[in-house]
Protein backbone atom coordinates (compact mmCIF):
# COMPACT_ATOMS: atom_id res chain seq x y z
CA UNK A 1 0.00 0.00 0.00
CA UNK A 2 2.85 2.40 0.92
CA UNK A 3 4.51 1.88 -2.48
CA UNK A 4 1.25 2.70 -4.29
CA UNK A 5 0.88 5.96 -2.29
CA UNK A 6 4.44 6.99 -3.20
CA UNK A 7 3.80 6.39 -6.91
CA UNK A 8 0.68 8.60 -6.91
CA UNK A 9 2.40 11.43 -5.02
CA UNK A 10 5.15 11.92 -7.66
CA UNK A 11 2.71 12.06 -10.61
CA UNK A 12 1.74 15.49 -12.06
CA UNK A 13 -1.59 16.81 -10.74
CA UNK A 14 -3.37 16.54 -14.18
CA UNK A 15 -3.10 12.77 -14.02
CA UNK A 16 -6.45 11.35 -12.93
CA UNK A 17 -6.83 8.56 -10.40
CA UNK A 18 -8.37 6.39 -13.20
CA UNK A 19 -5.37 6.74 -15.50
CA UNK A 20 -3.01 5.95 -12.62
CA UNK A 21 -4.89 2.73 -11.96
CA UNK A 22 -4.73 1.87 -15.69
CA UNK A 23 -0.97 2.46 -15.82
CA UNK A 24 -0.46 0.45 -12.65
CA UNK A 25 -2.56 -2.41 -14.08
CA UNK A 26 -0.50 -2.37 -17.27
CA UNK A 27 2.75 -2.34 -15.30
CA UNK A 28 1.55 -5.25 -13.17
CA UNK A 29 0.53 -7.23 -16.26
CA UNK A 30 3.91 -6.53 -17.89
CA UNK A 31 5.72 -7.56 -14.70
CA UNK A 32 3.71 -10.79 -14.56
CA UNK A 33 4.52 -11.61 -18.18
CA UNK A 34 8.21 -10.76 -17.74
CA UNK A 35 8.33 -12.74 -14.50
CA UNK A 36 6.76 -15.76 -16.17
CA UNK A 37 9.20 -15.50 -19.12
CA UNK A 38 12.12 -15.04 -16.74
CA UNK A 39 11.29 -18.24 -14.89
CA UNK A 40 10.77 -20.01 -18.22
CA UNK A 41 7.27 -21.10 -17.26
CA UNK A 42 4.25 -20.93 -19.55
CA UNK A 43 1.36 -18.83 -18.28
CA UNK A 44 -1.71 -20.94 -17.68
CA UNK A 45 -4.41 -20.26 -20.26
CA UNK A 46 -7.04 -22.47 -18.65
CA UNK A 47 -7.94 -23.85 -15.23
CA UNK A 48 -5.50 -26.74 -15.84
CA UNK A 49 -2.72 -26.98 -13.24
CA UNK A 50 0.62 -28.13 -14.72
CA UNK A 51 2.25 -28.19 -11.30
CA UNK A 52 -0.27 -30.75 -10.06
CA UNK A 53 0.22 -32.75 -13.26
CA UNK A 54 3.96 -32.93 -12.58
CA UNK A 55 3.23 -34.14 -9.03
CA UNK A 56 1.05 -36.90 -10.53
CA UNK A 57 4.03 -37.99 -12.68
CA UNK A 58 6.09 -38.36 -9.49
CA UNK A 59 3.36 -40.41 -7.78
CA UNK A 60 3.41 -42.90 -10.65
CA UNK A 61 7.20 -43.17 -10.71
CA UNK A 62 7.11 -43.96 -7.00
CA UNK A 63 5.09 -47.12 -7.82
CA UNK A 64 8.06 -48.36 -9.87
CA UNK A 65 7.66 -49.65 -13.45
CA UNK A 66 3.99 -50.27 -14.33
CA UNK A 67 4.60 -53.49 -16.28
CA UNK A 68 1.56 -55.76 -16.65
CA UNK A 69 1.45 -58.54 -14.02
CA UNK A 70 3.73 -56.69 -11.58
CA UNK A 71 3.15 -55.08 -8.19
CA UNK A 72 3.80 -51.63 -9.72
CA UNK A 73 0.96 -52.15 -12.20
CA UNK A 74 -1.40 -53.40 -9.50
CA UNK A 75 -0.72 -50.37 -7.29
CA UNK A 76 -0.79 -47.81 -10.12
CA UNK A 77 -4.00 -49.25 -11.60
CA UNK A 78 -5.65 -49.09 -8.17
CA UNK A 79 -4.44 -45.49 -7.80
CA UNK A 80 -5.88 -44.43 -11.18
CA UNK A 81 -9.25 -46.00 -10.30
CA UNK A 82 -9.32 -44.23 -6.91
CA UNK A 83 -8.34 -40.87 -8.45
CA UNK A 84 -11.04 -41.16 -11.09
CA UNK A 85 -13.73 -42.29 -8.60
CA UNK A 86 -12.99 -39.07 -6.70
CA UNK A 87 -13.45 -36.90 -9.81
CA UNK A 88 -15.65 -38.48 -12.53
CA UNK A 89 -19.40 -39.13 -12.70
CA UNK A 90 -18.87 -42.83 -13.55
CA UNK A 91 -15.84 -45.09 -13.67
CA UNK A 92 -15.84 -48.30 -15.72
CA UNK A 93 -13.01 -50.78 -15.22
CA UNK A 94 -12.44 -53.29 -18.01
CA UNK A 95 -10.47 -56.28 -16.63
CA UNK A 96 -9.40 -59.21 -18.78
CA UNK A 97 -6.45 -61.51 -19.39
CA UNK A 98 -4.29 -61.66 -22.48
CA UNK A 99 -2.20 -64.68 -23.38
CA UNK A 100 0.93 -63.43 -25.15
CA UNK A 101 2.57 -64.97 -28.20
CA UNK A 102 4.94 -66.82 -25.82
CA UNK A 103 2.10 -68.10 -23.62
CA UNK A 104 2.40 -65.66 -20.70
CA UNK A 105 -0.99 -64.82 -19.14
CA UNK A 106 -1.25 -61.09 -18.37
CA UNK A 107 -3.98 -59.58 -16.19
CA UNK A 108 -4.85 -56.21 -17.77
CA UNK A 109 -7.10 -53.27 -16.87
CA UNK A 110 -8.49 -50.34 -18.83
CA UNK A 111 -10.05 -47.52 -16.83
CA UNK A 112 -12.79 -45.37 -18.41
CA UNK A 113 -13.66 -42.24 -16.42
CA UNK A 114 -16.84 -40.57 -17.70
CA UNK A 115 -18.35 -37.12 -17.24
CA UNK A 116 -22.02 -36.73 -18.31
CA UNK A 117 -22.21 -40.42 -19.27
CA UNK A 118 -25.70 -40.03 -20.83
CA UNK A 119 -24.63 -37.31 -23.28
CA UNK A 120 -24.47 -38.54 -26.87
CA UNK A 121 -22.18 -35.67 -27.91
CA UNK A 122 -18.90 -36.82 -26.39
CA UNK A 123 -15.14 -36.43 -26.64
CA UNK A 124 -12.84 -39.40 -26.07
CA UNK A 125 -9.31 -38.93 -24.72
CA UNK A 126 -6.94 -41.91 -24.57
CA UNK A 127 -3.57 -42.46 -22.92
CA UNK A 128 -1.64 -45.57 -21.93
CA UNK A 129 -0.68 -46.09 -18.30
CA UNK A 130 1.55 -49.18 -18.58
CA UNK A 131 5.32 -49.07 -19.06
CA UNK A 132 7.66 -51.09 -21.22
CA UNK A 133 9.37 -54.11 -19.59
CA UNK A 134 12.64 -53.71 -21.51
CA UNK A 135 14.83 -50.78 -22.58
CA UNK A 136 15.48 -52.19 -26.03
CA UNK A 137 16.48 -48.83 -27.55
CA UNK A 138 19.30 -48.20 -25.03
CA UNK A 139 22.68 -47.58 -26.70
CA UNK A 140 24.50 -49.50 -23.97
CA UNK A 141 23.64 -53.21 -24.47
CA UNK A 142 23.93 -53.81 -20.70
CA UNK A 143 20.96 -51.50 -20.16
CA UNK A 144 18.65 -53.25 -22.60
CA UNK A 145 17.17 -55.72 -20.13
CA UNK A 146 16.26 -52.94 -17.67
CA UNK A 147 12.64 -51.75 -17.41
CA UNK A 148 11.68 -48.31 -18.72
CA UNK A 149 10.74 -45.95 -15.82
CA UNK A 150 8.21 -44.29 -18.15
CA UNK A 151 8.18 -40.71 -16.85
CA UNK A 152 7.22 -39.53 -20.32
CA UNK A 153 6.18 -42.81 -21.96
CA UNK A 154 3.29 -43.77 -19.67
CA UNK A 155 3.22 -41.31 -16.77
CA UNK A 156 2.94 -38.00 -18.66
CA UNK A 157 -0.38 -38.68 -20.37
CA UNK A 158 -1.78 -40.37 -17.27
CA UNK A 159 -0.77 -37.39 -15.09
CA UNK A 160 -2.32 -34.95 -17.56
CA UNK A 161 -5.59 -36.93 -17.36
CA UNK A 162 -5.68 -36.88 -13.54
CA UNK A 163 -5.08 -33.10 -13.56
CA UNK A 164 -7.75 -32.71 -16.25
CA UNK A 165 -10.05 -34.66 -13.93
CA UNK A 166 -9.44 -31.93 -11.32
CA UNK A 167 -10.67 -29.33 -13.85
CA UNK A 168 -13.72 -31.34 -14.93
CA UNK A 169 -14.76 -32.01 -11.33
CA UNK A 170 -14.77 -28.25 -10.61
CA UNK A 171 -16.29 -27.24 -13.97
CA UNK A 172 -18.55 -29.92 -15.51
CA UNK A 173 -18.03 -29.95 -19.31
CA UNK A 174 -20.75 -28.97 -21.79
CA UNK A 175 -20.18 -32.19 -23.78
CA UNK A 176 -19.71 -35.69 -22.38
CA UNK A 177 -16.06 -36.50 -21.72
CA UNK A 178 -14.46 -39.95 -21.56
CA UNK A 179 -10.91 -40.34 -20.26
CA UNK A 180 -9.65 -43.79 -21.23
CA UNK A 181 -6.49 -45.12 -19.56
CA UNK A 182 -5.38 -48.15 -21.58
CA UNK A 183 -3.13 -50.95 -20.36
CA UNK A 184 -0.63 -53.11 -22.28
CA UNK A 185 0.31 -50.61 -24.97
CA UNK A 186 4.04 -51.21 -24.69
CA UNK A 187 4.48 -54.83 -23.60
CA UNK A 188 5.89 -56.48 -26.74
CA UNK A 189 7.23 -55.48 -30.15
CA UNK A 190 6.15 -52.87 -32.70
CA UNK A 191 8.53 -53.77 -35.53
CA UNK A 192 8.79 -55.48 -37.94
CA UNK A 193 5.30 -56.69 -36.99
CA UNK A 194 3.03 -55.95 -34.03
CA UNK A 195 3.25 -58.54 -31.24
CA UNK A 196 1.73 -58.14 -27.77
CA UNK A 197 1.32 -54.35 -28.03
CA UNK A 198 -1.71 -52.01 -28.17
CA UNK A 199 -3.53 -54.58 -26.01
CA UNK A 200 -5.80 -52.18 -24.11
CA UNK A 201 -6.84 -50.09 -27.10
CA UNK A 202 -7.52 -53.27 -29.11
CA UNK A 203 -9.68 -54.59 -26.25
CA UNK A 204 -11.59 -51.31 -25.96
CA UNK A 205 -12.18 -51.20 -29.74
CA UNK A 206 -14.07 -54.50 -29.50
CA UNK A 207 -15.72 -53.75 -26.10
CA UNK A 208 -17.08 -50.22 -26.55
CA UNK A 209 -19.05 -48.78 -23.59
CA UNK A 210 -22.35 -48.75 -25.48
CA UNK A 211 -23.91 -49.87 -28.74
CA UNK A 212 -23.26 -47.24 -31.38
CA UNK A 213 -20.64 -45.44 -29.25
CA UNK A 214 -19.30 -42.76 -31.59
CA UNK A 215 -17.55 -39.80 -29.93
CA UNK A 216 -17.51 -36.53 -31.91
CA UNK A 217 -13.74 -36.88 -31.95
CA UNK A 218 -10.95 -38.52 -29.98
CA UNK A 219 -7.34 -37.76 -29.10
CA UNK A 220 -4.60 -40.11 -27.94
CA UNK A 221 -2.11 -38.22 -25.78
CA UNK A 222 1.21 -40.10 -25.67
CA UNK A 223 4.67 -38.88 -24.62
CA UNK A 224 3.49 -35.30 -24.13
CA UNK A 225 5.61 -34.24 -21.16
CA UNK A 226 9.21 -33.93 -22.30
CA UNK A 227 11.12 -30.73 -21.52
CA UNK A 228 11.92 -29.98 -25.17
CA UNK A 229 8.38 -30.53 -26.44
CA UNK A 230 7.48 -30.18 -30.14
CA UNK A 231 4.33 -31.78 -31.45
CA UNK A 232 4.07 -32.48 -35.16
CA UNK A 233 0.99 -33.88 -36.85
CA UNK A 234 1.08 -37.69 -37.06
CA UNK A 235 0.69 -39.42 -40.44
CA UNK A 236 -2.11 -41.93 -39.72
CA UNK A 237 -4.08 -39.18 -37.98
CA UNK A 238 -3.75 -36.78 -40.91
CA UNK A 239 -4.77 -39.50 -43.35
CA UNK A 240 -7.73 -40.92 -41.38
CA UNK A 241 -9.10 -38.00 -39.32
CA UNK A 242 -7.72 -34.74 -40.79
CA UNK A 243 -10.54 -32.60 -39.34
CA UNK A 244 -9.57 -33.69 -35.81
CA UNK A 245 -5.91 -32.82 -36.45
CA UNK A 246 -6.99 -29.35 -37.68
CA UNK A 247 -9.21 -28.82 -34.65
CA UNK A 248 -6.45 -29.70 -32.16
CA UNK A 249 -3.66 -27.71 -33.83
CA UNK A 250 -6.00 -24.72 -34.35
CA UNK A 251 -7.00 -24.79 -30.67
CA UNK A 252 -3.30 -24.80 -29.73
CA UNK A 253 -2.65 -21.85 -32.06
CA UNK A 254 -5.60 -19.94 -30.55
CA UNK A 255 -3.94 -20.37 -27.14
CA UNK A 256 -0.62 -19.05 -28.53
CA UNK A 257 1.12 -22.43 -28.62
CA UNK A 258 1.99 -22.54 -32.32
CA UNK A 259 5.69 -23.00 -31.54
CA UNK A 260 4.91 -26.25 -29.71
CA UNK A 261 2.08 -27.58 -31.91
CA UNK A 262 3.72 -27.37 -35.33
CA UNK A 263 1.26 -27.87 -38.21
CA UNK A 264 3.48 -30.17 -40.29
CA UNK A 265 3.58 -33.98 -40.51
CA UNK A 266 6.79 -35.67 -39.35
CA UNK A 267 6.21 -39.30 -38.27
CA UNK A 268 3.69 -42.01 -38.99
CA UNK A 269 3.27 -44.15 -35.88
CA UNK A 270 1.32 -47.30 -35.12
CA UNK A 271 0.00 -46.36 -31.71
CA UNK A 272 -3.21 -46.84 -29.67
CA UNK A 273 -5.24 -44.70 -32.08
CA UNK A 274 -4.84 -47.28 -34.87
CA UNK A 275 -7.18 -49.99 -33.45
CA UNK A 276 -9.67 -47.22 -32.57
CA UNK A 277 -9.56 -45.74 -36.08
CA UNK A 278 -10.05 -49.28 -37.44
CA UNK A 279 -13.21 -49.53 -35.28
CA UNK A 280 -14.54 -46.35 -36.90
CA UNK A 281 -13.72 -43.90 -34.08
CA UNK A 282 -12.14 -40.63 -35.21
CA UNK A 283 -9.12 -40.64 -32.89
CA UNK A 284 -5.81 -38.91 -33.63
CA UNK A 285 -2.38 -39.29 -31.98
CA UNK A 286 -0.72 -36.32 -30.30
CA UNK A 287 2.83 -37.56 -29.66
CA UNK A 288 6.35 -36.14 -29.59
CA UNK A 289 8.35 -38.98 -31.08
CA UNK A 290 11.67 -37.05 -30.99
CA UNK A 291 12.58 -38.20 -27.50
CA UNK A 292 16.17 -39.47 -27.05
CA UNK A 293 15.42 -41.40 -23.79
CA UNK A 294 12.56 -43.28 -25.48
CA UNK A 295 12.57 -46.98 -24.49
CA UNK A 296 15.68 -46.54 -22.33
CA UNK A 297 16.24 -46.47 -18.54
CA UNK A 298 16.74 -42.71 -18.94
CA UNK A 299 13.03 -41.93 -19.41
CA UNK A 300 13.06 -40.43 -15.91
CA UNK A 301 11.42 -37.63 -13.88
CA UNK A 302 14.01 -34.99 -14.89
CA UNK A 303 13.00 -35.45 -18.56
CA UNK A 304 9.49 -34.06 -18.06
CA UNK A 305 8.45 -30.52 -17.22
CA UNK A 306 5.58 -28.63 -15.65
CA UNK A 307 5.62 -26.25 -18.61
CA UNK A 308 5.07 -28.99 -21.23
CA UNK A 309 2.31 -30.57 -19.16
CA UNK A 310 0.73 -27.12 -18.73
CA UNK A 311 0.72 -26.45 -22.49
CA UNK A 312 -0.75 -29.81 -23.43
CA UNK A 313 -3.18 -29.66 -20.49
CA UNK A 314 -4.35 -26.22 -21.63
CA UNK A 315 -5.06 -27.55 -25.14
CA UNK A 316 -6.82 -30.68 -23.81
CA UNK A 317 -8.92 -28.49 -21.47
CA UNK A 318 -9.83 -25.91 -24.12
CA UNK A 319 -10.99 -28.67 -26.50
CA UNK A 320 -13.65 -29.90 -24.03
CA UNK A 321 -14.59 -26.73 -22.14
CA UNK A 322 -14.11 -24.10 -24.84
CA UNK A 323 -12.14 -21.95 -22.35
C1 LIG B 1 4.67 -45.00 -28.34
C2 LIG B 1 5.10 -45.00 -27.08
N1 LIG B 1 4.86 -46.22 -28.82
C3 LIG B 1 5.41 -46.95 -27.88
N2 LIG B 1 5.58 -46.24 -26.81
C4 LIG B 1 4.52 -46.63 -30.16
C5 LIG B 1 5.66 -47.03 -31.05
C6 LIG B 1 6.96 -47.10 -30.61
C7 LIG B 1 5.37 -47.37 -32.34
C8 LIG B 1 7.98 -47.47 -31.49
C9 LIG B 1 6.38 -47.72 -33.22
C10 LIG B 1 7.70 -47.80 -32.78
ZN1 LIG C 1 6.75 -46.82 -25.36
Question: What can you see in these coordinates?
Answer:
The relative contact order is 0.17. Strands 1-2-4-3-5-8 form a six-stranded mixed sheet, with helices on both faces. It has a two-stranded parallel ribbon with strand order 6-7. The longest helix has 23 residues, at 17-39. Helix 3 (50-62) crosses helix 10 and helix 5 (155-170) packs across helix 10. The radius of gyration is 22 Å and the shape is globular. It is of the alpha/beta class and 323 residues long. Helix content is 38%, strand content 18%. The chain has one domain (3-11, 47-321): Aminopeptidase. It starts with a helix and ends with a helix. It has ten helices and eight strands. The protein has helices at 2-9, 17-39, 50-62, 71-85, 155-170, 199-206, 235-240, 242-254, 273-278, 306-321; strands at residues 90-99, 105-115, 122-128, 176-182, 217-222, 231-234, 261-267, 283-287. The structure holds 1-benzyl-1H-imidazole and zinc ion. 1-benzyl-1H-imidazole is lined by residues 153, 186, 190, 222-223, 269-271.
